[in-house]
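In this supplementary section we document a worked example of the pipeline. Step one takes a protein sequence of length 96 as its only input; no multiple sequence alignment statistics are reported here. Step two produces a three-dimensional model, which step three serialises into C-alpha cells for compact storage. The input and output of this example are shown verbatim.
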Amino acid sequence: MPKSEPFHGFLFGDATVSNHSQMTDLRYPIGQFEHEGEIAGEDVTRWIDQIDALPRQVRAAVEGLSEEQLDTPYRPDGWTVRQVVHHIGDIHLRGC
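The serialised model returned by step three reads:
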C-alpha cells in the first residue's frame, strides 16, 4: 500500500493523499482523499474559506493560457484543462 503524505496544493487545501510518486490509478493523479480524525469547527471554517477562494484560484491559474493549452488533456485519455475548469465551475455552483 502506498505511503500517505500531507498534500498542500493549489485547489486542494490540506489533505492526506496517497503518495503520488507511486501513482497507479490515473483517475486519482494525487491519490484518493483520506481524512483522518475528527472534524472540528476550524476544519469546516477552513474548508468554507477554500471553497470561497476556489473561483479566484482557478481564474488565476488559467489566465493567459492559449486555446491549445486549454485543450490539452491533463493525463492520457483525460479531460482537457478547459473541461476540468468547466467541471469545477459546475460542481462549485451546485455545491456538490
